[in-house]
Structure formats: C-alpha cells, structure tokens
Amino acid sequence: MEPVHIIGAGLAGSEAAWQIAQAGVPVVLHEMRPTVETFAHRTGDCAEMVCSNSFRSDDDQMNAVGQLHWEMRAADGLIMAMADKHRLPAGGALAVDRDAFSAAVTAVLQGHPLVSFAPGEITDLPTEGRWIVATGPLTSAALGQSILQATGEGALAFFDAIAPIVHADSIDMQVCWLQSRYDKGETEEERTAYINCPMTKADYEGFIDALLAADKAEFREGETAGYFDGCLPIEVMAERGRETLRHGPMKPVGLTNAHNPTEKAYAVVQLRRDNALGTLYNIVGFQTKMKYGAQTEVFRRIPGLQNASFARLGGIHRNTFLNSPLLIDDRLRLRARPNLRFAGQVTGVEGYVESAAMGLLAGRMAAAEALGRDLPPPSPATSMGALVNHITGGADAKTFQPMNVNFGLYPPLDDIRGGRRGRKDRYPAYTDRAKADFRAWLATQ
Ligand SMILES: Cc1cc2nc3c(=O)[nH]c(=O)nc-3n(C[C@H](O)[C@H](O)[C@H](O)COP(=O)(O)OP(=O)(O)OC[C@H]3O[C@@H](n4cnc5c(N)ncnc54)[C@H](O)[C@@H]3O)c2cc1C
C-alpha cells in the first residue's frame, strides 16, 4: 500500500502518524529538525513542547479543552497517552515532563513497524501522493513560499495579531448597544453587526493610564520582522499619543447610544461578531502584547465588559496559518489540491492540544481514504468537531485568526440557554452531549 507522507513531526504530525499506522496504513514522517532549526524548538525529538509544559485544564465536565482531552483519549490518542504517562502534579491542569514526554512519543513512533522517518526539510508542496502538511506556526520559509504560491496572496498569514475574544453572554447589554457605524448595511442584521461600549472622558483617560502602565510581554528575537505594518498593538498606539486610539479603533463617530441618545460618547470600543453562531465577539483593533493578567484587568475597565469572560486573550506572534475557512474542506483537504491535507496549528487552531487533535483527525481521515472509505468529522457539538467546524466554515474568512477550543464554538443548547441557566448547568450539559456524539462518531469507524 502507498504510504501517507507527513511533513512535520510536531504535536499534530506525530499524532497523525500514530493514527495512520494504527489503522494499518504505512506512514513516512518528514521532519527537518535538528538539521534545520526554528527559533523556538531545542531538540530533534517528535512533539516538542516549545513553551509551557501544560495541556491546560483536564476537567472534561466544565472545560472545553478538558473535553478535548477526553475525546483524544477515547480515540486512542498517542499525545494524550504519553502526556498521561509523564504527567506532573499541577492541580486541575495536565502538565507534563516535557523532555520525557517528547522522548516517549519519539520512541513509540520509531518502534512502530508501519512508521518510517525521512529526515530533512521539504521545500515544495508535493504534487503526487497522499500528504499531510503539519509544519506548525514556524513552517520553514521555503515551504511557506510554496504554500503561498498554491493558495494565493493573502491566504497564508505569517503572524497572528489577535484581538481578545469575548463570550457574548458575558457582555452587559444594559450598558452596550447594537449598531454598525453610520447604520451601514443592507439588512437589519448588518446595521446591528457591532456591540458598542461607550466611554466618558474620565473612562477613556483611566483606560489609557491603565494601558500605559500594564505589564507587556517582550518580543523574542526574530519575532517582530514584518508584523508592524497593519496591526499596531493598542498599547503602542497609546504610547504614540493619548488621543491616538480615540482617532483610531475607539473613535466615537457615526454611533448613537441607544440607552442614552442625547449624550455623545467620548470614545467607543466596538466588538464584532466572531462566529456564525453569534456566541463570540472580538474587540475590534485591540491586538496587544499585554500580559494575560493585565489584559483581563485593563479590558474589564471598558463599560459593559466589567464581567467579560474571554474565550481568548489578545496576542501578536510569529505564526504561519492558512485562511482555512476559504481554503480547506471539512475533510481537512486543500480544496485546490485534495491530495494535500493540513493539520495542526497551520490550519488556524491554536495550542498544543488543539493542534494534536487536528493531527488525530487528519490522520484518521487520511487512513480511511487510503483504505477506500470516507470519514466525516465528528459532530460540531464535540470539541473536535466544533474546532473543525470553526476553521472550515464557522469563522469569518475576512477576519480569521487562530482559535483555542472553547464552549463559544459549540452549538447552543436551546433548552438550557432559553431557561437562562448558568454555566454550572450549561457546561456539563455541553460535555455530556459532546461525549455521546463523539462515541457515536467512533462507533461508525
Ligand atoms: C514561540 C511559541 C510558543 C508557544 N507556546 C505555546 C504554549 O505555551 N502552549 C500551547 O498550547 N501552545 C503554544 N504554542 C503554539 C504551539 O506551537 C502549537 O500549539 C503546537 O506546537 C503546534 O503543533 P504543530 O504540530 O501544529 O506544530 P509544531 O509542534 O511546531 O510542529 C511542526 C513541525 O514541523 C517541522 N517543520 C516545519 N517546516 C518544515 C519543513 N518544511 N519540512 C520538514 N519539517 C518542517 C518543525 O520543525 C516542527 O517539528 C507556541 C508557539 C510558538 C511559536
């Protein structure tokens, strides 16, 4: 049988290789490290964790990433099995001994009779055979250019400039109102596409002071080149002048406060819908290098966001990722070149676990295809399915930015939301439904 080839033996590529081999299909892993290095990796091992040693919450009742752990364990995931084996005490989080973890993943793959290694950098997207591209946020420059040629200008990003994303149900609509600037739009939905948070002069001055004083993360060497043009961090804008933001993303023009139409806001923070479900909103133009703790503190000063719950916080990073909603189908294939699947962070998911999960799925789909079957993704009411649904259609291609798994990606539970019950009831209901749907998906294979 022709092997499936995988480019990149990171979190996603390693998991994909395991899933393919376990399905009885031969697989070849092409990894460029340690011959070609990245600025973040240190070793030549598979599945190296480049920064923190945590897979985040392991709570599969109350947390969407914990639920994703559950799904990967249920699907015989190698990354979860080795993480469990090398787990360190970390309260409710799943933290691992990173070196032992990567060494174990490497040893298991090296010992598998259907896995072979072909060390070296792949510089061009292959045209023949069945391939999975899992080259991650630090995809080599040559391959990045080749992907760009295949997908077109603007379809591949080299940085993410992420504005924070807020759960819609945590926004105080007694303070905020729905309106697009100058009521622009053909339909009522378009004319009310933004959530607006009004600021008085005192609110604005206090906000700028907090922004200037906040703790910021340093850029790593080699990280900054090229990002500055279109997406200045808000704190850099504030440093350029106290009024800069009021003439930029916080300008109050073309908006009338529905709760107080006669009073003109001094500045307005706008949030734009981030997913088709309308459960997530991003704060427009608020990309930032503030540290996470500082972001929560500073953004909760915005009127209407005092109780905001964040699906993800802002950031600016070196990150190669596709505009997947435009380019990838729900079988994780490049629409224009269906012999190529993409997996991991390069598909626009964010995080070790999410990346490994996309590897798991791409691996299972590629193996099924090699065996003459078609494997659809799991239901969007599972963590894995919610991620695929988001990157291949749920997210808006125009503003697509990488995403962690979170309950905002899940289809709402009408009965429970309708009853206005709190998270304590809603989250276990989400994860119970996810487990049932995921078991049903596994049973089809
Ligand atoms: C600096 C930094 C810090 C991060 N910190 C965290 C964190 O703390 N927590 C978290 O959850 N996530 C973090 N991430 C995100 C994290 O990298 C990803 O979540 C995860 O590693 C992505 O998995 P992946 O398999 O998609 O990519 P990777 O794990 O990066 O694997 C991709 C592999 O492809 C190889 N490769 C690239 N190009 C080629 C080529 N042309 N030919 C052959 N091989 C190639 C690379 O060497 C690498 O081994 C961080 C990312 C970066 C860049």
From TrEMBL:
Function of the protein: NAD-binding protein involved in the addition of a carboxymethylaminomethyl (cmnm) group at the wobble position (U34) of certain tRNAs, forming tRNA-cmnm(5)s(2)U34. Catalyzes the folate-dependent formation of 5-methyl-uridine at position 54 (M-5-U54) in all tRNAs.
Domain MnmG N-terminal span(s) in chain numbering: 4-373
Protein name: Methylenetetrahydrofolate--tRNA-(uracil-5-)-methyltransferase TrmFO
One term of GO molecular function: flavin adenine dinucleotide binding
PROSITE patterns xrefs: GIDA_2
Entry GO CC: cytosol
GO biological process, one term: tRNA wobble uridine modification
NCBIfam families hit by this protein: gid_trmFO, PRK05335.1
Keyword Endoplasmic reticulum: no
One Pfam family, short name: GIDA
Source species: Paracoccus laeviglucosivorans
Family classification: Belongs to the MnmG family. TrmFO subfamily.
Keyword tRNA processing: yes
EC number, as in UniProt: 2.1.1.74
Superkingdom in the source lineage: Bacteria
Keyword vocabulary terms for this entry: Cytoplasm, FAD, Flavoprotein, Methyltransferase, NAD, NADP, Transferase, tRNA processing
Residues holding FAD: G8, A9, G10, L11, A12, G13
Cofactors demanded by this protein: FAD
Top-tier EC class: transferase
Catalytic activity of the protein: uridine(54) in tRNA + (6R)-5,10-methylene-5,6,7,8-tetrahydrofolate + NADH + H(+) = 5-methyluridine(54) in tRNA + (6S)-5,6,7,8-tetrahydrofolate + NAD(+); uridine(54) in tRNA + (6R)-5,10-methylene-5,6,7,8-tetrahydrofolate + NADPH + H(+) = 5-methyluridine(54) in tRNA + (6S)-5,6,7,8-tetrahydrofolate + NADP(+)
Annotated localization: Cytoplasm
